[in-house]
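Observation: inputs received (chain + nicotinamide-adenine-dinucleotide).
Thought: call the complex predictor directly.
Action: predict_structure
Action Input:
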Amino acid sequence: MTQDFEGLNVLVTGAASGLGRATALEFAGRGASLTLVDVNAEGLDETRKACEAKGAKAITVPTDLSDAEACMAPVPAAIDAFGRLDALINVAGMLVFNHFPDTTVAQFDKVFAINVRAPFLLIQSALPHLLESEGAVVNVASASGVMGHAYTTAYGATKGAVIAMTKNLATEYWKSPLRINAVAPGAMMTPMASATKMDETYDMQLIAKGIGAREIARPEDLCEIIAYLASPRNKRVHGQVYSIDQGVTA
Ligand SMILES: NC(=O)c1ccc[n+]([C@@H]2O[C@H](COP(=O)([O-])OP(=O)(O)OC[C@H]3O[C@@H](n4cnc5c(N)ncnc54)[C@H](O)[C@@H]3O)[C@@H](O)[C@H]2O)c1
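Observation:
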């Protein structure tokens, strides 16, 4: 594997499971040191050990990203441990899957806090360091921010916001060396997907529209693209949303 992150430090949120864990391991294999952030301290520790088994240095910063003040801790921890930050990968996310009339204000506020406000605050905190290192941001959006999915209106709105945040920020930093991009995954087999409870009140025909005709992705299928977007080898891709969705938005 290319050692394009040798000597570089990458901060990955949502690193305790699913796509975040797979992404951390991808960067570990490319020579990066890792700052691992998640609310799930036990899962984070497992990811740290798996990164170390690949020869990478890694620290964990257990953080509840729904708490705005707590979002200020991970970047200083990365700088304390490694003296630099080269990439911020915003993977952590919460899904609200239910009938539109049943979505509560508390769910709406929480999903926006985790999926939109936390990446916003982490990017603010990381920017001075990323400008110094000429680094990168990769935000994880979703196909549901690009097209309609049933039963995920609040969640889809957060992912549309992540896409708008990526493009607006990329425009503001157009004249800097930063690279700011997003990926928009389609259905992925992760704990988030397997924890989604469905019953006969949901219309499977509508749900199938968001899954499409191809096999559901594994998190490992996406990591190479995330690593490329964050890599110093990527000199030209900026302000883009890379769909990795088995073609559902084609
Ligand atoms: N699984 C899918 O089908 C799918 C599709 C498109 C996009 N995504 C996006 O991919 C990303 C990763 O999701 P995943 O599928 O790997 O699910 P996952 O549940 O395995 O991972 C999400 C991670 O976010 C962490 N997290 C949740 N709330 C948090 C909080 N308050 N503070 C800190 N960490 C918190 C969880 O602990 C978990 O480790 C998410 O942004 C999700 O929206 C997933």
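Thought: report the result.
Final Answer: The longest strand covers residues 179-185. The longest helix spans residues 105-133.
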